[in-house]
Amino acid sequence: MTKSKRLILIGLVLLFLSGLIVFLFSFNQEGFNGSRVKNPDAYLLDIERMNGTDYHIMELNEGDALQIHFETLKGSLNMKITAPDGAAVYSGKGTESTDFTVNIRKAGVYTIAVEASHAKGIIHIQLKKP
Known about the structure:
Shape: rod-shaped
Distance between the termini: 80 Å
Order of helices and strands: HEEEEEE
Largest sheet: 6 strands, antiparallel
Radius of gyration: 22 Å
């Protein structure tokens, strides 16, 4: 193999590796593509593609209920709802049950955290007063 062919081959390999690195870096970046609504009485995520974590807080009263629709269609989605005292009132991946209710036993500010990895799915949380 001549020296010029060897240099061309090395250049092509380096170009391919550079492109692969750029692709992998951009593929794993945090981001959200879809529709997101955050209100005092609702948290609605229609996720086309999500990487990273999103948070929402809701001030709830004893006796309130959260009506939840949670579907993981692709990738990994994990949702955790935390009470004011730090206890988890719900933690799941959206694969067990798609429609359910979480009853609120203590008034205060609740935190909802959604972690996603290359995810597509639906999370609709709506407050239902007693």
